[in-house]
Write a structure and sequence with these properties.
Elements: H1 10-34, H2 39-47, H3 66-79, H4 81-101, H5 104-109, H6 111-116, E1 121-124, E2 140-144, E3 147-158, E4 165-172, E5 175-182, E6 188-193, E7 204-215, E8 219-220, H7 226-262, E9 264-265, E10 268-269, H8 274-303, H9 308-338, H10 343-352, H11 361-377
Parallel strand pairs: 1-4
Antiparallel strand pairs: 2-3, 3-7, 4-5, 5-8, 6-7, 9-10
Helix pairs in contact: 1-3, 3-4, 3-7, 4-7, 7-8, 7-9, 8-9, 9-10, 9-11
Amino acid sequence: MESHVPDAYSDLRDNIREFCMKEVIPVAAKIDTDDSFPVDLFRKMGKMGYLGVTVPEEYGGSGMDYIAQGIIQEELGYASASLALSYGAHSNLCLDSLYRNGSEFMREEYVPKLCSGEWIGSLCLTEPSSGSDAFAMKTSARREGDSFILNGSKTLITNAPYADLMLTYARTDADFTAFSVLASDKGVRKGSSFKKLGMKGSPTGELFFEDVFLPGERIVGKENDGKNVILSGLNVERAILAMLFVGLSRRALELSLSYSQERKQGGFPIADYELIQEKISYMYTRIEAARLLCQRALERVQNNRFNVADSASAILYAAEVAEFAAREAVQIHGGYGYTSGSEVERLLRDSILGQIGAGTTEIRKKIVARAVSKMFREGWRP
């Protein structure tokens, strides 16, 4: 399937696609089998300019936008969903938010290291007792003069086992504040790494903070304004992450087309049978619809990071399509598709994360419904 991108982004699409074909696809199965994070490959992505794609060149980035980031995410999702997940956590959730909200000190000291891949970044929001209800967090930062003392823990954090910088949210007074926390800070401890059903090779772990001293210059944004940092970042994350599942879906369809035209039963390729054709037709139609919805979300969130309806509906649908496409791919491949180590088996395992990560499907439905109802009250009509 050909990815439809504006002319201004065609070179980027060709470059990241070539990178994936040469560097990512050959090791994608090994990343999954070994459950190993490809640090060297990640740093190579930094040298190619992919990690800091939304950051201006003066701070080590490529000076592009969310549409460009979405293109990279889609192609990585096609090649290795787990690498794409870690890319999104680093490039979008951590780096982009740090650049947009951070001080000049952070832009000069931290952002270039994240752009180059010298440092690996993560977002620390989820806690043992707060997932979908993110604002029920218990991690706190107590002010002491011009500094803060951070205490608490985070869990199920993408990239945590390898992270050098964690964009961390904590309670401050009656509100929330975002901080840049370094793995080298005294009192920071990395806990267990989780074994997961899918997205193997994208490290997920725990973080513990015990009396971590943070000077005031570590605040990202403004004190007690963390809620706005969170919400603007999550809307962009949904639109970007949705592209990962468009890429995964594309791969599922491509593998299904190839196998169904080669595999013969009753003397004919199984692609000649109508029940297989039905599967292919629905996969193609839903993937194309998901792609268009996601591209529109990226275009709109580029101008309004608080565009809730478009970003949430994009990932709601793209994630469901990815799981559908991967499940149909397994069915088309039959017994071979069900064997451990087959690529479509990996795609199915990876696809399930789409309906859990970055907010569950159930929460996304709630978000979309509330946003559309509010738009309707304010005069919008379908």
